[in-house]
């Protein structure tokens, strides 16, 4: 079912990882605002694909940032 999702076009620093019925958007960036931008574009594409396939995100969905720096709260916009 998710084969189509795994083939959508994403920013070059972003990939989707799937296991069973779970999907993770993995983004890498050197600076927070680029991370926000890349994640936002990828998330929007995932939501469009899910909507077109009559699927929706669960409310338990989260964003986790891994870093070795102090970072401010990132603004991951939801649709």
UniProtKB/TrEMBL annotation:
Keywords: Nucleotidyltransferase, RNA-directed DNA polymerase, Transferase. One of its GO terms (molecular function) is RNA-directed DNA polymerase activity. This is Reverse transcriptase domain-containing protein.
């Amino acid at each position: 079912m998710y084969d189509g999702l795994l083939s959508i076009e994403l920013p070059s620093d972003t990939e989707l990882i799937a296991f069973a019925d779970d999907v993770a958007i993995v983004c890498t960036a050197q600076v927070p605002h680029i991370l926000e931008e890349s994640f936002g574009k990828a998330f929007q594409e995932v939501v469009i694909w899910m909507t077109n396939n009559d699927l929706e995100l669960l409310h338990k969905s989260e964003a986790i940032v891994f870093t070795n720096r102090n970072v401010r709260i990132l603004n991951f916009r939801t649709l």
